[in-house]
Structures are given as structure tokens and as C-alpha cells.
Design goal:
The complex is a heterodimer of chains A (about 300) and B (about 350). Chain A is mostly helical and about 300 residues long. Chain A is built from twelve helices and no strands. Chain A has helices at about 1-5, 25-40, 40-65, 65-70, 100-135, 140-155, 155-170, 170-200, 200-210, 215-250, 260-270, 280-305. Chain B has helices at about 55-60, 90-100, 120-130, 135-145, 155, 165-175, 195-215, 225-230, 250-255, 260-265, 330, 335-340; strands at about 10-20, 25-40, 40-45, 70-75, 85, 100-105, 185-190, 215-220, 235-240, 240-245, 315, 320-325. The chains are: A mainly alpha (about 300), B alpha/beta (about 350).
Chain lengths: ~300, ~350
């Protein structure tokens, strides 16, 4: 395309030829502009920066909840139940018991983000190691580990989680435990597939020829090449875990009243959705905000973790 | 073994067999190879694709996949108490690799980890078999890069492999292989994927390094021109077996195996433009190796006996010159040869 655009300038027959750039210079200019743009890492990392900024705002908000909200999330304002946003001194209104919705969203975020980080990081690390070991060693190790993974995949995910929580008793910590037990399997599968591809590469053979130990080959040579897939997936999974926490809260298996949690709030608010929309909608928007932040971070990381196209 | 015993042997391979179990049958990739690498010697292994050169190297290094690979024979590494590399423990093998034996590979583009910087990987190799501080390792890495002729090593250390050209990468890989000063370097077609000028540079670099460090080298190539240029002794492989071995000069001037002879004649002669000579036929399948001489179907001198009788490596007149052909005396007479060649 570019070459066509400048073909006219090289004609010589047109009078413009005298003052337009020589085609080689023009081409150089265009290429230089692109080179400059790809040199400025800002543009490439924009997506990541926006995502991190959004997540940063969310974290600041939940950490600074006592300052921002001003009231306790479980304080009942008997005089103003179901008051719409901006009335009765409540910026985002109150719920059916007169509790401040803003305070509940901010404090509730602590639980949801804790799930996003705490549940996801454990499954990420564990699943990655299991997948790496299974993929690298192969044979009976692989068979054994993957049959265990199959066992977990054989159950409907939510039903399995509900069953575990039902056994352990509903609480936030047990929700963590249920997620830890069940969701490492996706990471193990992704990592195993990536590892099997990577271990056939010549750089692995070369590393072994240099007398590196298995651990070193696995963690320093194979893992850096394969981990980007699971890291990107973990961002998606973090959103999934927030939604899972919300779903469990909605079902009454997660955070227990009166402690605030976004899913529980939506569940509480659904009875009033026609008359008092803010009770369910606003925590829903909070979930969307954090979810978008994580998915932007995931996209941005996917770009950065591939040095080949820097 | 034979007359060559007076020089100290570094590595002796005795009757090495590596059979690979595949879906189509058992591939006898290496079938009774015996060779010896002496101290400070460059041994060339030449043969066409699929003749077992690479499998021989990888078996020596213990790099064949464990599943479906069956090896027998001995790979004796003399400096380490006559250790047989085929039977030593995984741990001992790990200790030997890199520090005593190193290997460089055919395609430099894929032999480095793409997501880590070259410097990082070089420092890793430097510290793998020696204890040293971070600064020392960095300094040693840079001096290695200087040694292999990479300009601006300070900056190149921070580059990723994809930012290197093929020739520069092969230099970096040589630096990595030599990081722990191995006694034996196995170079498996180190110049095959490079263009001719770079090939020459890499070969002279390898040779120079070999002379400076006094290490031994096994140079594997399908290119007889490369081999004759660099090596002290040559081993010619065909169909998983050694068909001829001897000093470079002897092999060039007095090839005794019809295959060696055909290979030499297939080399393009400088100056005259003419038809390129090739060896008619295809290399044998290593799955159902025919009885008798493996080269017989393609050999202009073959008789009925050749396809039913196999022979061992036979001593001929030169010292250490051995050939797997019972009609090797007749190979000298070129008349038969020319006649069948033009036919």
C-alpha cells in the first residue's frame, strides 16, 4: 500500500515531482514514524497501564473505605431505608435496612478482591507446577496427575464447589478452600500442553547437553516459555473467581449476612430491583469495573510476555 | 584398538548400537559403531542424512529420549576413570555434560531459549559447573563473547536470541558450549544452516578455539568438503555403520570404500562447469536392513556375494586406515569406476 501511495511522486511527469520528496526519502519517513511509535513502549503498554490504573483505583478505594464511606457498612439508618442515591446523606442510597450502599460496596470489595488475588494466586502456582511436572516427566507421572485432573473435570464445576462448601460449612474461608481444591486443574491442563510442546524444542536439548539439572531445565528454561499462557488465563480466572464468589454469595454459601459482599448485595437487591434499582445495580457495576481491569491487564500482559515481537 | 593406540584416547566408543522402536518397526539407527577420539584431535564424521551421525552424537551425550531407545555397547570416557557413559548414573552424566563434554547443534536459531537474554543464558552456563560471584561470571561471559568474535559484547549480552543473526547466534552458542572448558566438543552439523561465508568463519573459529584450548572435537557433517578442510581423521558412515576410517590425507587420496570414493567424486570441482555427479539410488532403510553390505544396491563394484555377505572393518595398508569392503583393493582401479559412472 505504502509503495503505491508514493508511486505518483516518482513519476517525474507531474509538476509536483519537483517539490515532493524522493520516494526513498518518503518511504524512509513513513517507516521511521512507525519505528518511533513502536519504540515508545507507552503505546504498546497502554492497555496494561489502563488496566493497572483501574485496578489501582479499586484497591485504593477498598483500602481507603473507612475514609471514603464515612459510615460502617452494617450500620442501620432506620429513618432512611431504600432511599435513592444522593438523598438522606447517602451518596449511593441505602438498602432495605437503611445501610449505606457506598460503604457496603467499598467494604464488600475487600472480600471480592481478596478472592480474586488469594484464590487465583494459589491455584495459579499449584496448577502451573503440576502441569509442568506432568508435561515434562510424562509417562506414569503424567498419567496419574492427569487422571486426577480428569476427576475434577468430570463434575460440573459449580456443583462441586457447592458440595465442598456444603461439607465444610458456608464461610468465606471455606469458599477459598473450595476454589483452591477445584480450579487448579485448568492451569495444570494448559501448562501441561504448553510444556509438552516446549520440551521438544532444541533449546531444551541444548540445556540438557550443558548438564543442567531437571529442576533448572524445567523452571528456568521451559517455564519462562510457557508461563505466559497461564498468567493470561489467570487474569480471566480472577474475574471468574469474583463472579463465582458473587454467585456463591447470591446462593447464600459465600459471605454471610450482615457482612457485605457484591454477590450477596445483588442477591439482596433483586427483590427491590423494580422499585430501588441501585441496591443490585451498583455492586454489579463494581464487578464489571474490576472485571474489565483484570481483562485489560491480561491482554496487556499477553503482549508483553512475548519478547519476539518487541 | 589398532595402530593409533599410541596417542592417548579421550573417548572410546565400542560396538555402539542404538535401536529405536517406532510404529513402523525397529530402526537400527546406529549399528555397531566403534570409534576413538584422541586428545586434542579433530575427528570428522561424514555421511548422508539418516546414516546415524546425529544419533551417535546424542547417544554419546545421553540425550536420546528414554522411551523407545535401546542402546548397547560402550562409550568410555577415559579421564573419568574409564566411566561408561551409557551406564553411569544420571547425576554423574549431568556432571560430565557441560564440564567435560559439550555439544553444539545444527540450528542455532532454535538452540537458545527465546524468552531469555543471551547474556543471561551465557552466565547460566558459566556458573553451571563452577562457583563464582555474579561479577566474575559476568566478566567471564563477556570475555567468552569477545573470544568468539562478537562485537560490542556488553550490549549484545542484553539482547534476545531473535535479535542475533544466525552466524552470531552460532558464535554465542559456541561461547556457551565452551563456558566450562570441556575436553570434548561434539559439533553436530554446526554450519549446515549458515551461508557459505559464515560457515567458513565459524569453522575457522572452531578450529582456532580447538587449537588454543587443546580440546578434542567431533565434527559431524554431511559435507565432505567441510570435513576434509578441518579434521585430522575422518570416519565415513553409511546406513548406521562406519564404512571407512583413516587420516584425512589417506581418505582423500586413497579412498578404499566405494561409498567414500563416490562421495569424493560428488564434490563439485572448482573451475569446470559441468554435470554434478551424484550417487545413484537412495540410502537404505534402517528398518529392514538387507543382509550383506548395506551399500551393495548402489555400488558399481557389487557382486552377488556383496549382497549376501557382510564384512567387518578390514585393515588396509595405511596405519589406522580401515574399510568395510572386501573388494577394497579393486576400488583403486578406476577403470571400472568410470565405466559404471557414465552409464
Amino acid at each position: 500500500m505504502t509503495s503505491q501511495r508514493f508511486a505518483g511522486g516518482s513519476g517525474g511527469s507531474s509538476p509536483r515531482a519537483s517539490w515532493t520528496l524522493h520516494p526513498s526519502e518518503a518511504l524512509l519517513k513513513v517507516a521511521e514514524r512507525t519505528a518511533k511509535r513502536s519504540r515508545s513502549t507507552g503505546r504498546r503498554r497502554m492497555v496494561l497501564i489502563i488496566g493497572l490504573a483501574m485496578l489501582g483505583i479499586a484497591i485504593l478505594a477498598i483500602v481507603g473505605a473507612p475514609l471514603l464511606a464515612g459510615v460502617s457498612p452494617i450500620k442501620i439508618d432506620v429513618l432512611h431505608p431504600l432511599s435513592p442515591p444522593g438523598t438522606g446523606g447517602h451518596l449511593l442510597g441505602t438498602d432495605q435496612f437503611g445501610r449505606d450502599v457506598l460503604a457496603r460496596i467499598l467494604y464488600g470489595g475487600r472480600i471480592d478482591l481478596a478472592i480474586a488475588f488469594g484464590a487465583t494466586s494459589v491455584t495459579l502456582v499449584f496448577g502451573t507446577i503440576v502441569g509442568l511436572v506432568a508435561g515434562y516427566f510424562g509417562g506414569w507421572v503424567d498419567n496419574l496427575l492427569m487422571r486426577i485432573v480428569d476427576l475434577f473435570f468430570a463434575f460440573p464445576f459449580l456443583v462441586l464447589i457447592i458440595a465442598i462448601i456444603a461439607m465444610l460449612g458456608p464461610s468465606i474461608f471455606n469458599m477459598f478452600v473450595a476454589i483452591w481444591i477445584t480450579s487448579w486443574v485448568s492451569y495444570a491442563r494448559i501448562m501441561r500442553a504448553q510444556t509438552i510442546v516446549a520440551k521438544k524444542q532444541q533449546y531444551v536439548l541444548a540445556a540438557r547437553a550443558l548438564g543442567y539439572s531437571r529442576m533448572r531445565v524445567m523452571f528456568r528454561h521451559i517455564m519462562p516459555n510457557t508461563v505466559s499462557a497461564v498468567i493470561v488465563f489467570s487474569m480471566v480466572d480472577a474475574i471468574g473467581n469474583i463472579i463465582l464468589a458473587a454467585s456463591l454469595g447470591f446462593l447464600g454459601l459465600g459471605a454471610q449476612p450482615p457482612s457485605p459482599e457484591w454477590g450477596t448485595m445483588i442477591s439482596d437487591g433483586q427483590n427491590y430491583i423494580l422499585s430501588s434499582w441501585w441496591i443490585a445495580t451498583l455492586p454489579g457495576l463494581a464487578i464489571v469495573f474490576v472485571g474489565v481491569a483484570f481483562s485489560l491487564i491480561g491482554d496487556g500482559l499477553a503482549d508483553i510476555l512475548r519478547p519476539g515481537d518487541r | 584398538m589398532t595402530a593409533g593406540e599410541r596417542d592417548t584416547a579421550l573417548l572410546s566408543v565400542r560396538d555402539l548400537r542404538t535401536y529405536l522402536a517406532t510404529r513402523h518397526g525397529v530402526v537400527r539407527a546406529v549399528d555397531g559403531v566403534s570409534l576413538e577420539v584422541r586428545e586434542a584431535e579433530v575427528l570428522g564424521v561424514v555421511g548422508e542424512s539418516g546414516c546415524g551421525k546425529t544419533v551417535t552424537c546424542r547417544t554419546i551425550m545421553g540425550l536420546m529420549p528414554r522411551k523407545g531407545t535401546y542402546s548397547s555397547g560402550e562409550v568410555i570416557y577415559h579421564p573419568r576413570g574409564e566411566a561408561n557413559l551409557l551406564t553411569v548414573s544420571q547425576k554423574e552424566l549431568q556432571r560430565l555434560r557441560g564440564s567435560q563434554l559439550a555439544m553444539i547443534f545444527q540450528d542455532p536459531m532454535t538452540a537458545l531459549n527465546p524468552v531469555r537474554t543471551v547474556g543471561d543464558q551465557l552466565i547460566e552456563a558459566v556458573t553451571a559447573h563452577a562457583r563464582m560471584s555474579r561479577e566474575e561470571a559476568h566478566g567471564r561471559a563477556i570475555s567468552l563473547l569477545v573470544r568468539v568474535g562478537i562485537p560490542a559484547p556488553d550490549q549484545r549480552m542484553k539482547d534476545y536470541p531473535f535479535q542475533f543473526s544466525g552466524g552470531m547466534l552460532q558464535r554465542a552458542l559456541i561461547a556457551i558450549a565452551l563456558a566450562s572448558e570441556p575436553k570434548l566438543l561434539l559439533a553436530d552439523e554446526p554450519t549446515t544452516s549458515l551461508d557459505v561465508i559464515i560457515q567458513d568463519q565459524i569453522l575457522s573459529l572452531l578450529l582456532e578455539l580447538q587449537r588454543d584450548t587443546g580440546m578434542s572435537m567431533i565434527l559431524v557433517s554431511h559435507d565432505l568438503a567441510v570435513i576434509t578442510e578441518v579434521c585430522d581423521r575422518i570416519v565415513v558412515m553409511y546406513g548406521g555403520q562406519i564404512v571407512e576410517e583413516g587420516d584425512t590425507a589417506t581418505i582423500i587420496s586413497e579412498p578404499r570404500h566405494p561409498y567414500t570414493r563416490a562421495l569424493l567424486e560428488a564434490l563439485p570441482q572448482g573451475g569446470e562447469r559441468g554435470q554434478l555427479r551424484s550417487i545413484p539410488g537412495a540410502p537404505p532403510s534402517l528398518i529392514d536392513a538387507p543382509p550383506g553390505c548395506r551399500f551393495a544396491p548402489r555400488c558399481p563394484l557389487a557382486t552377488d556375494e556383496c549382497s549376501s555377505w557382510a564384512t567387518e572393518l578390514l585393515d588396509t595398508d595405511g596405519p589406522g586406515h580401515r574399510v568395510r569392503c572386501w573388494r577394497h583393493q579393486e576400488v583403486r582401479g578406476s577403470a571400472t569406476w568410470q565405466a559404471s559412472d557414465s552409464a
